[in-house]
Amino acid sequence: MSMSQTPASANPKVGFVSLGGPKALVDSERILTQLRGEGYDLVQTYDDADVVVVNTCGFIDSAVAESLDAIGEAMAENGKVIVTGCLGKRADVIRQAHPGVLSISGPQDYASVMDAVHAAVPPTHNPFVDLLPDYGLKLTPKHYAYLKISEGCNHRCSFCIIPSMRGDLVSRPVDEVLREAEKLVRGGVKELLVVSQDTSAYGVDLKYAPRLWGNNVYETRMKALCEGLSTLGVWTRLHYVYPYPHVDDVIPLMADGKVLPYLDIPFQHASPRILRLMKRPGAVDKTLERIQRWRSICPDLTLRSTFIVGFPGETDAEFEELLDFLDEAQLDRVGAFAYSPVTGAKANELPDPVPEDVKQERLARFMERQAAISEARLAAKVGSVQRCLVDAIDGELAIARSMADAPEIDGLVQVQDGREAGLQPGEFVDVRIMGSDEHDLYGEVEYND
């Protein structure tokens, strides 16, 4: 936690540490909103805090270690620590490392967190003084927000333990999601990032039940959700989409400018045999065909994906299949991981683990191949005009993102004359692209006559 000074206040003070990705961030924002609404002050230092809440990640072993370190630091610096989030499902691991923590609860268990905070430091809430904005408290800059549409997952990928931690898919009714989005936009949000464990399965558990929002009825399914969000006049970005056939339904919405032309699809591999071992959808030829079809409908489509190299049993030939897939698919943005055993994952039992040095060598070759592809795709944008959203002003520059760039994980657009043009965070701007590198674009404000 940073060591900034906080003003003195009679209210009880809570420190907050949020680990993990966007989905954990959504949980953190909900808890923070509740705390602030009950009159707690949120402070930036351990010394100032009456109690510290740590929202943990427990998906891969390195994240478990990071979470345990964060809990340990909070215990050493403050001593009164409440643990929540994914690692909370493995209370024995936490208790063994840090037996003195006050409370442990799992993801989305807001009630247990609040009960533990109340027990440690009772609230002194005055409802007439502490009025909270109705769009809640956010950890991200106020011009973008994560919109969580479901919990859990119906897939049983062999490398993943999320279903055992978060259960099967539970979708939020579409009217509830749209109401939350509407509040966020009223509060100044310009970009909504739709997140879940499996966005394309949204609503299957609710049998796609229709709900009323505004004057229209929307089914609880991905396409209808996108149609509803498109009426709010902001950017909508889709994350964690499985390549199901009905993803085709949203591509025309992207071509029409209703949803950002951006899909985050974790393909994970390209060898049919490895995909079967992963328990992932595995028709690679069909995947390539569909990518071509999507691009023919929406030429501006940006595709981001993630892959695992060195999965147990992966042969040299199967790794070469993966490199060939990269060449053919021409994806814009790619993340990759060398396979890392996750405690409790089925994949750990598979035969023929790949030696660590081979995994790392394959990862380096994979990233080198993709870097050249990403660099070429960015270079092709030089000379174009890109609609961008400004995130920050840094010296003379405005740091912005194009429609192709999700926050934190993709590239940036550095607007060279951003300060001179008077740009502000949260503003949209058209940028003439003058140059590029492996990750980012560089340009100047395009003045429209």
List the helices and strands and how they pair.
Elements: E1 13-18, H1 22-37, E2 41-43, E3 51-56, H2 61-77, E4 81-85, H3 91-97, E5 103-104, H4 110-120, E6 144-148, E7 150-151, H5 162-166, E8 170-171, H6 174-186, E9 191-195, E10 210-213, E11 216-219, H7 222-230, E12 235-238, H8 251-255, E13 262-264, H9 272-278, H10 284-297, E14 302-309, H11 316-329, E15 333-338, H12 356-379, E16 385-394, E17 397-402, E18 413-415, E19 428-436, E20 441-445
Parallel strand pairs: 1-2, 1-3, 3-4, 4-5, 6-9, 9-12, 13-14, 14-15, 18-20
Antiparallel strand pairs: 7-8, 10-11, 16-17, 16-19, 17-18, 19-20
Instruction: Output the structural class.
Output: alpha/beta
Q: Tell me the β content.
A: 15-25%
Distance between the termini: 47 Å
Query: What is the CA-based Rg, rounded?
Result: 23 Å
**Are there runs of 5+ residues with pLDDT below 50, and where?**
1-8, 127-132
Number of strands: 20
